[in-house]
Amino acid sequence: MTKYINVKTVSRTDMIDITSQVQEVIDRTGITDGICYLYVPHTTAAVTINEGADPSVRRDIMKALSRLIPRDAGYSHMEGNADAHIKSSLVGSSAYVFIEKGKILLGTWQSIFFCEFDGPRHRRVAIKARAVRAFRSKP
Amino acid sequence: MTKYINVKTVSRTDMIDITSQVQEVIDRTGITDGICYLYVPHTTAAVTINEGADPSVRRDIMKALSRLIPRDAGYSHMEGNADAHIKSSLVGSSAYVFIEKGKILLGTWQSIFFCEFDGPRHRRVAIKARAVRAFRSKP
Amino acid sequence: MTKYINVKTVSRTDMIDITSQVQEVIDRTGITDGICYLYVPHTTAAVTINEGADPSVRRDIMKALSRLIPRDAGYSHMEGNADAHIKSSLVGSSAYVFIEKGKILLGTWQSIFFCEFDGPRHRRVAIKARAVRAFRSKP
Questions:
Q1: May I ask the CATH architecture of the domain B3-131?
Q2: In degrees rounded to 5, what are phi and psi of residue A11?
Q3: 3-class DSSP state of C91
Q4: Interhelix angle for B55-68 vs B82-91, to 10°?
Q5: What are the sequence ranges of the domains in chain C?
Q6: Whether C123 contacts C11, CB under 8 Å
Q7: Radius of gyration in angstroms for the set of CA atoms belonging to chain A, rounded to a whole number
Q8: According to the model, what pLDDT value does residue B139 have?
Q9: CB-based contact (8 Å) between B73 and chain C?
Q10: Is residue C125 within 8 angstroms of chain A, CB to CB?
């Protein structure tokens, strides 16, 4: 069964910390050791893992993406959001994290971010989680 | 066991919709709820998920990548395809999708694409799929 | 249970082949058919799969990334490593590989690389692996 997180974005481009929402989904599964899979069912958004402590990191990431992929650059796609599609494939529509003792295993500075490239919109992140049994270590 | 999809590319750079081929592999597994893992065993190709409805999106993605990573830019690698290797690491050699009721769970506009960066070639995409049991929801 | 690979990087940016270390972890699990998940718990590093035979490919990838994302570009983040955070989200903090007959299933030229964008540092790669049963092929 797939669970969903709802994300409401408020500007055209944004990175929204969804770590605690993902943790809540994991809590409900009762899985203590496993993998949590995130999937963005949108073509102008993405998911990434990066620093959560300093909000300026998010701004730098979004600005760098917009510098590399400008909003207007003679694109063929006529809906005015070709840049958002391109960013989506660069950052990626999925990310997984490990679950250890019921908690997302993140590095000290890591958070999970929903990336909006063509907002504001109501978005969703699909989530599946599964247990991973301990290694049967060889002698 | 790993299954393979064969992809024949016809130009140097291309994005080929492999959604229906992936669905056929899933059909044969009999998995109704799970995860389907795609893996590209090539270093000058990739897999991504993006809009399938308007072919101009694909063209914009490939053009943007070629603008960012030109074919000739004083690379060290002498085989004339350094750009393709770089694009491969930017877009990524793997992608997973969820399986719900036996079908790939995709957003309205999403399709799965094989990305060719150094074609034309005969390529393969390796696929594994596995069932994910329903969450044992906590009270 | 999560296993860890230790990686010592010696320069600010580097790509280090960790394929054999990943294979050693898989060997200890006794898994013959499955998936091996890699996860980088750092926000200024990444993991990717690309050509291992010619070291110039690695150099070209790192140089292209540094050309696209210069070290100094008026970033907001004040620690001098905003570029490393941006590269991390472009290349990605995770990658999975398939396990077949106990060995990592890689294309002829593929190796697994730890990408350092803000070294030199002592780094870790977290690893989980799990068996995937054979498809129950439908008639």
A1: Sandwich (2.60)
A2: -140, 175
A3: helix
A4: 120
A5: 3-131
A6: no
A7: 17
A8: 52
A9: yes
A10: no
